Amino acid sequence: MVWYTIRRILQLIPVFFGATLLLYFMVYKLPGDPTAALGGGRPLTEAVRNQIREQYHLNDNFFTQYWLYLKGIFTFDFGTSFSGRPVLDVMQQAFPVTIRLAVMALIFEAVFGIVFGVIAGMRKGGWFDSSVLVISLIVIAIPIFVIGFIAQFVIGVKWGLAPVTVGGNDGISNLVLPAIVLASGSFAYVLRLTRSSVAENATADHVRTATAKGLGRPRVVTVHILRNSLIPVVTFLGADLGALMAGAVVTEGIFNINGIGQTVFRSVQIGEAPTVVSIVTVLVLIYLIANLAVDLLYAVIDPRIRYA
Questions:
Q1: Is 106 helix (H, G, I), strand (E, B) or coil?
Q2: Which of 258, 289, 293, 307 is nearest to 96 (CA)?
Q3: pTM of the full predicted structure?
């Protein structure tokens, strides 16, 4: 297990460098002059423009800028934003909010998606199975920004059960509705994936054998059906954590949440490359760590899996 973990970590190293190289190249090739947005509606003088380009190494070639970027990552020096604020401070303020939002969304989609999926899979072809399949298909078909505006209007404005906007009051209670909206699409996929996997494993030989031995229905479902059905679900959930954090741009915009989604959106608008690249780099690391955790979790879920 230890050697497998080391080997998987070594495999992630070239993935990290490849992803960051591609990311930095795309940001480097963005059209326009990043210094133009700093003057607001007024043009900057040539002296000020040259000073800014020198300060942020904008006159250097691509590989020099990429080397300075990597050097800053490994020394936890993510540079300075165009406003003069350290990018690390910006991330320390924005990331906790988005992490809370993404984790709440992940818990929602995992708990309710697995529970409803198990019930639908065990009652394949029944009214509950047909109902959840139709509902999940409708949720997948509707864009998340439409679901967000509907939930905001109905639950927030009409019923008054949740705040319409979050703003600086980003406590857990105020993030419940945005988390549900953020998790809605993934919840439908988890439900359908669990339902298909459970329905397939419910008719397997080992399940019939366990039932013939006289094991109770709850034990057969939880031990012999659910554990074997969770492998694809856990794989999806591990990959979805990074997707939730990246997809928080729309949800945070709808509910006015000051997280990384809002920060990245504003930074892209003004061409603030240091902030955009630093935040996305951290998202890449979170995605890689989540996938490593999923690989190690396989042996816990399914005892038949052993790592040499």
A1: helix
A2: 258
A3: 0.79
